Automatic annotation (TrEMBL):
This is Iron-sulfur cluster assembly scaffold protein. GO terms for molecular function: iron ion binding; iron-sulfur cluster binding. NCBIfam families: SUF_scaf_2. Pfam families: NifU_N (PF01592). SUPFAM superfamilies: SufE/NifU.
Length: 150
C-alpha cells in the first residue's frame, strides 16, 4: 500500500497534468456519464493483434475520475487484452474493497483509498467501464446517456 501522501501526489499529478488526454482520431470510442456527480468521460482505444496500441481519454469531472482515466491509459497502453482484463478486474476489486492493493497495480494503487468512499467508487470506475464498452461492445453495453462511435 502506498503512503497516503504519495497517493495524493499521484492523483493530483494525473488530475492536473493528465496523460493521453484528447481525441484519438479514427479509433472506436465510448462516452459515459456519472449523473450522480457530473463526471463524463470518453475513452478511445486502438487495437492491433490483441494489443492496446493506443489509449486516450477526454472528459470532465472530479479529480478521482480524471486521475483514474489518466492512470488507466498509462497502465494499459501496450498491454494485451488478457493483461488489460486482469488489471481491470484487480483494480475494480481494489476499488470495491474486495482485495487489498498489490504492487503489480503500480500507480493505480494510489486510488485504493476510494474503497472507503462508497460514493466515489463510481467515479474511479467510470473510465474503466467506458474502456470495457469500447473493447467489448456487446458484453457491457453502455447505459444512456452514452454515445458510441468508431
Amino acid at each position: 500500500m502506498l503512503p497516503e501522501t504519495v497517493a495524493r501526489e499521484i492523483i493530483a499529478s494525473h488530475q492536473q497534468r493528465p496523460r493521453n488526454r484528447g481525441e484519438l482520431q479514427g479509433a472506436p470510442h465510448v462516452t459515459l456519464d456519472n449523473p450522480g456527480c457530473g463526471d463524463r468521460v470518453t475513452v478511445w482505444a486502438r487495437l492491433q493483434d490483441g494489443v492496446i496500441t493506443d489509449l486516450h481519454f477526454d472528459g470532465k469531472g472530479c479529480a478521482i475520475s480524471q486521475a483514474s482515466a489518466s492512470l488507466m491509459t498509462v497502465a494499459l497502453k501496450g498491454r494485451t487484452l488478457t493483461e488489460a482484463s486482469a488489471i481491470h478486474a484487480h483494480f475494480r476489486q481494489m476499488v470495491m474493497g474486495e482485495t487489498p492493493p498489490t504492487p503489480d497495480l503500480g500507480d493505480l494503487m494510489a486510488l485504493s483509498g476510494v474503497s472507503r468512499l462508497h460514493a466515489r467508487r463510481k467515479c474511479a470506475l467510470l473510465p474503466w467501464r467506458a474502456l470495457n464498452a469500447v473493447l467489448h461492445p456487446t458484453q457491457d453495453a453502455p447505459h444512456p446517456p452514452a454515445t458510441q462511435g468508431s
